[in-house]
Design goal:
Blueprint (H helix, E strand, L loop, with lengths): L3 E4 L12 H8 L3 H22 L5 H16 L5 H11 L8 H10 L3 E6 L3 H10 L8 E4 L10 H11 L6 E5 L2 H9 L3 E5 L16 E3 L5 H11 L1
Parallel strand pairs: 1-2, 1-4, 2-3, 4-5, 5-6
Helix pairs in contact: 1-2, 2-3
Bound molecules: (2S)-2-hydroxypropanoic acid (2OP).
């Protein structure tokens, strides 16, 4: 069976900082720091809800994190402005290297899935809007089992849905916690380190390979597969 690739979505295919231009209209120079904190808190809320087994959708984590970020930064956004930000979040852009990377992966004959904490409906909209839905056989959402990455249950769920063994499946992600989760669950994993400022957690679990742009993925996985 051809190798299966699970592409993480937020932060890997889709740029969560695509909200910055709208944020700048509302809060000026604070926009980048606000966006960074918003994303960090969104993930923290998903981790906490997973641990507490108190599931709400990823969109609720995003909305709650927006409220928190407004409180901590003292940004006084109106309800209309918050709604606009949430709307922008549902149609965020892809990173510049994504289309070329996905095109090469498709040509190389890999089985491609989108695999994310977002709900299926949210992901369908997001990927269609970025014009990349067509590359994926299917979307596997954490919402299907009401928990979040990096619970081992979600990587097992992916392998079951994709009908693949861990050793034949790769996670492609820019999120170190996701890479560590996938490797711990028996998958292989490619970390997309787009900038030197992104730091991998200094644990004893490392990515199988590291790439700097998504357009390197097909060649790097083929090289790695030829080694084994
Ligand atoms: C995703 O699941 C982790 O946010 C990332 O799309």
């Amino acid at each position: 069976m051809p190798t299966t690739l699970a592409f993480d979505v937020y932060g890997t295919l889709i740029d969560t900082h695509g909200v910055i231009s709208v944020l700048e209209k509302f809060i000026g120079a604070q926009a980048f720091e606000f966006s960074r904190l918003w994303r960090e808190k969104q993930l923290e809320y998903s981790f906490r809800r997973g641990l507490m087994q108190n599931y709400q959708s990823f969109a609720v984590c995003t909305r709650d994190a927006l409220e928190y970020t407004c409180l901590v930064t003292k940004a006084s956004l109106s309800n209309k402005e918050k709604l606009e930000l949430m709307n922008v979040y549902s149609i965020l852009p892809s990173f510049k290297d994504v289309k070329e990377g996905l095109e090469q992966v498709k040509k190389a004959g890999f089985r491609m899935f989108a695999f994310s904490n977002g709900s299926s409906e949210a992901l369908e909209l997001l990927l269609a809007n970025a014009n990349i839905r067509k590359y994926f056989i299917d979307i596997v959402s954490a919402d299907e089992i009401k928990t979040f990455k990096p619970s081992p249950a979600i990587y097992r769920h992916f392998l079951k849905r994709a009908n693949s063994a861990g050793a034949e499946a790769w996670l492609i992600s820019s999120n170190p916690f996701d890479i560590i989760g996938a490797i711990s669950s028996g998958m292989r994993a490619a970390w997309v380190q787009r900038s030197e400022e992104s730091i991998f957690d200094p644990w004893d679990i490392k990515p199988t390979i590291v790439i700097n742009k998504l357009s390197d993925i097909a060649e790097s996985i083929l090289n790695e597969s030829n080694k084994t």
